[in-house]
Design a protein that fits this description.
Length: 136
């Protein structure tokens, strides 16, 4: 599923497919404990997220980051993103990776899943600062 997952994430976030493939390969080859999470409806990807070292922001000390959180519109409101976030936090914690960070412009969504606003960060190529959240 790696190729299809990389293409799916690319279609949502406009990051080159190769960047996703590189990070997925690192996880699958055991080079990093930071992985990728998908929700499937049959063989179709309906939600996903990743955990990477840094989500392209100026606070390199705030890492690792949950990135590329997305649920297909027709599947929203069913708790898919919440379950994926919980799964990522729990699996990282089992591997000794905690806390996790997340960059977003959303207010009110991530708080429902135990994330707390920490500070603002400047994301690469963005004119305005973004919100940085932490899950301890």
């Amino acid at each position: 599923m790696k190729d299809g997952a990389a293409e799916w994430f690319r279609s949502k976030w406009k990051v080159p497919k190769e960047a996703y493939l590189e990070r997925m390969d690192a996880y699958l080859n055991g080079e990093t404990a930071l992985g990728w999470y998908l929700c499937l409806d049959g063989e179709s990807i309906v939600g996903g997220l990743g955990v990477i070292e840094n989500d392209f922001h100026d606070r390199k000390d705030l890492s690792p980051n949950v990135c590329a959180v997305y649920t297909e519109k027709e599947h929203r409101g069913r708790g898919i993103a919440g379950r994926l976030l919980t799964m990522a936090v729990e699996e990282c914690r089992k591997k000794g990776v905690s806390p996790l960070y997340l960059v977003t412009d959303h207010i009110g969504f991530y708080e429902r899943y135990g994330w707390e606003f920490l500070c603002t960060v400047q994301s690469d190529g963005e004119p305005e600062p973004s919100r940085m959240y932490i899950h301890r």
